[in-house]
Structure formats: C-alpha cells, structure tokens
Amino acid sequence: MDHALWAYELEKKRSQYSAFKDELLVNPSEVTRRMEMTISKRKEHNSEGTGFLPRAEIVQDEHPLSLGKTSVWNQHFQESETVEQIDRDVKRTHPEMQFFNGGSSDALSNQESLKRILTIFAKLNPGIRYVQGMNEVLAPLYYVFKNDPDQSNSASAESDAFFCFVEVLSGFRDNFCKQLDNSVVGIRSTISKLSQLLKRHDEELWRHLEVVTKMDHPAIDTGV
C-alpha cells in the first residue's frame, strides 16, 4: 500500500471498529428499546391529524423468551457461553504481568479491551467463534499497541490490535476450526508437519518433546 494512504486507512479501520462495537456489543434490551422508539415515531407520524395517540409495542419475537432465529435475545443467550469462556480465559492471560492482571484500573481496562476484541471476532466469524488460546495470540499484539510512545496511537490500541489479530489469524485460522482438525489444513496436520521439521533439524529436542507429550497427552500422535 502507498505510504501516503496509511493515515487514511488507519482512520478508516478505527472508525470501522467503533461501528463494530456499536452494532455487536449493544445489550439486547437496548436493541429492543431502539426498535420500539422507531415504531413509536413511525406511528406518531402516521397518526398525525387522526386524533389517536401512538402506543409503543414490543417488536414481534423480540423478548427475552423468544426462540426466533433472528431474535437478538435468542442470539444473546446462544452467545453467552462463548462470552463466558472469553471472560475466563482473559482473566488467566499472563497472570505474572501487572499489565494484564495487576488488579489496577489499567489492568482491568486492558482485560476489557481483550474481551471486546475476542467477542467481536467471535461474532463476525460464527464458523470459528472463539477457541481457547486465541487470547494468548492477541495479548502480545495488544501489549505492543498499548505501549506505543505516541499517545494518539496508544489510545487506539484496541482497534489497531483487533485488525492486526484478524490478519495474524487469517494465516492459520483453519487450525481453530474443529471440523477441519483431521483435514490436510487442520491442526493435526500442522502439528505433524512441525514435528517432521523438528525431527529433521533437532532430533534430540524432538525425542524429548515426544516423550513429554505422550506423558501429558497419551492420545496424541504426531504421525512421525
């Protein structure tokens, strides 16, 4: 990309991430409230001059007990398990670093940023969603952006880390897709290839890891 376009692209990406947050992280009750306001305004407009007072109504299938496939409430509860898993993993991310787990307001803020990034990614990629370990991939990216000496960049660390995370995962996202685990592009195939390379270049280390792996995970077979 032309260097002259960097600032424009950066601003566009940051604006796009802000839109993702507004659209994907909003509470379902707020979505319902917005829908009701829209309907109420429409009714008010249509009832002008008729003498009838407009009455707000809940949009059909938009309530906490709805099972409708397009219901924001139903989607919210279906996604709650993923959100809870993200929350648990983020709290365990680099416990030795005060940046992530120091108990300070900054550490808690950093955790919230990681949660938002991973939640948005999961919602934008329903075929993969969130897989344990993604938090470990994201953490160093966010750390680097957040510690940028330029405060204007540091302030946008969350959005910048999100798009960098997406780019990094695009290279090996198939490894996170459970349905592809046993395919030529899945995680088992990748591990087997890495094992073959390690055996070729450092057989002593390879033998050590083979023993350790089989002790910890007896069912794992590297295929070498």
CATH class of the domain at 70-171: Mainly Alpha
* Overall mean pLDDT: 78
Could you say which structural class the secondary elements and strand pairing correspond to? Answer: mainly alpha
Please tally the helical runs, counting DSSP H or I stretches of 4 or more residues.
10
Relative strand content: under 5%
Pfam families: RabGAP-TBC
Protein name: Rab-GAP TBC domain-containing protein
GO molecular function: GTPase activator activity
Domain Rab-GAP TBC: 63-224
Question: Which secondary structure elements does this structure contain, and how are they paired or packed?
Answer:
Layout: H1 6-24, H2 28-46, H3 72-91, H4 98-101, H5 105-124, H6 134-146, H7 151-154, H8 157-170, H9 187-201, H10 203-216
Please give a structural write-up.
The chain is mainly α and 224 residues long. It has helices at residues 6-24, 28-46, 72-91, 98-101, 105-124, 134-146, 151-154, 157-170, 187-201, 203-216. Among the domains are: 70-171, Orthogonal Bundle (Helicase, Ruva Protein, domain 3), CATH 1.10.8; 174-213, no CATH class. Helix 5 (105-124) packs across helix 8 (157-170). Residues 52-58 have low confidence and may be disordered.
